[in-house]
Amino acid sequence: MTTTGESRTHEFKAEIKQLLDILIHSIYTSKDVFVRELISNAADALEKVRFKQAAGEDVFGKDQALAIRIETNKDERLLVISDSGIGMTEEEVETNIGTIAHSGATAFLEQLKKGSGDSEGKDADINLIGRFGVGFYSVFMAAEKVVLTSRSANQDSQAIVWTSDGAGSYTVETIEGNDIPRGTTIEIHLKEDDENFADEAEIKSVITRYSNFVPFPILVNEQRVNQTTALWREPARQITDEQYTEFYKLISHDYQDPMMRLHHSLDGALQYNALLFVPQSSPELMGFGEGEVSLQLYVQRVLIDGSNKDCLPNYLRFVKGVVESQDIPLNVSRETLQQNRVIHKIRDNLTRKLLDRFLDLAKNDPDEYKTFWKNFQRFLKEGYSDFANREKIQELYRFTTSRAADDDEIIGLADYVEHMPEGQSAIYYLSGPTREALDRDPRLELFRKNKVEVLYLYDAADEFVLSALGKYKEKDLVSAEHAKPGDLKFADSGSDSTEDKPEETSEKSEVQPVIDRFKEILGDRVIDVRVSERLVDSPACLVGDDNQLSSHMEKMMRMMNKSEELPQRVLEINANHALIQRLAKTIAANANGPFVETACEHLFEGCMLLDGYLTDPHELVARMNQVLTDAAGAKADG
Ligand code: ADP
Description:
elongated, nine-stranded mixed β-sheet, Ribosomal Protein S5, domain 2, Heat Shock Protein 90, 22 strands, binds adenosine-5'-diphosphate, Rossmann fold, single chain, five-stranded mixed β-sheet, alpha+beta
């Protein structure tokens, strides 16, 4: 081959250098990951040419067979991987594996740093490299030098050669002449310790392990090594678990086995084949933002979309797999795909099938379902707005409750209803930071006394979802803050409110002066001050007005609107509490004495504090100190 003689040297970007440094100098036991990554790049490149050709585009080298060829040469410690795929122009090489800053590199470096440091953790992490769009660089785990030659499918393209030892820079040269075929050839000059990758048997075994279902022929020294069956078109009974798992790993870049699968085909008015998997966890949950959707859409045997978002609703984006239909035209564009009626029907069917699958798991293997719920609840909660499937989705939700021994004990809404005593007509919930806080929340005192179960919500999304659902079957979903005390007195709720009356019972009228005085002091900081029917042990609490959001929702809204204003709520006081009764007496003796004001401010701020609204505790602490000082004085004097 003739080069132009002019070679251009470029530095890798800082984060790529850093990544290369780690890849070159760390010892990974699963180095063979790089073979998988390069083969997967080759397969993607082949898919792209196949697509162009199917769409009738004119490509360079149109008669070249679509295949991946691998050659090994032990004497020269050389492994060569070529494909007849889409190839790359010089610009594309620069963009894809060159100088352009790469956010995936930074994200992957962070992931590596988080790795446990032992060899197992590191291997698990290195396995993830493909997910970050930097898989190509993994070749430098085993290579001391890489020479990549590529010729783009563009008719007037020139071939280029990219060379690097991974140490910080690379060179690019243009090749003159027309004798380089379309595609990419990667010559890997192996490090001494890694010469095993130049061993034919070894490479074959790596390929059958990782890349058996790559949908193009892979030839090692001209011998075919992989199967290219489209697994999703095969009858399920002919496929082994191992084959499914292998296929899943190939399409998902996951190194773990899938948690669940759904292989489902329809052949009738609507034709499609689908092979779907639920992973064990989602990178999105590890904080990587909305990960790439791994749902491949094939139309008439051609992959038209490698990360399709139309065949499943967005909330099921953690599901990976392949969908193929003969009923969609090949020339469909991504934009028209969204409107395609066949796609809509497929989506409806697959959504129902998947939800049924989740429900089956919940029913037949509650422990496994718990794991599933813990991993994917965030997605399923987004599904609250899927009205067509609401009945199924609400059966999938799980919550811990006031009855549970700890937060690990979770139940569904159906279980809650089953626990309900006769006469209870609503399902109650309350949000709070922890079980400890909710176990002591004054607003739940009457619930505790009447032994009414309350769903404990810790996740901001929960309350949103429950209030959006509004009802579960016939039962209203009600925030405990908005519950009417009368609603909690059921025939056999286990409450014994008659025997259990506090010693000092008080007429409402006795504490009316306290209410009047509190209203004067608090002014428009509260909507109202009234006697509570829900408090048992605490002197006061804040609740929402009937048509107000609950305090938790309000906090969320405040956060979203960045509002500094404190919400107005209703202050309820416990007429049976000694403090309130004594305040009534104090007011009777001296209506305007300063102590009543101190007590009122303190009660109010205490409630704000419990509700999480108090931003500045200084005043509260100063006041408390003053009260203690006075009390200490009284004791010393007495
Ligand atoms: P990813 O494949 O996840 O994007 P890589 O680092 O493996 O990340 O590859 C970066 C890019 O380089 C690919 O997206 C592709 O555009 C290009 N590329 C890599 N290998 C090939 C190949 N064999 N043929 C054509 N393009 C390739």
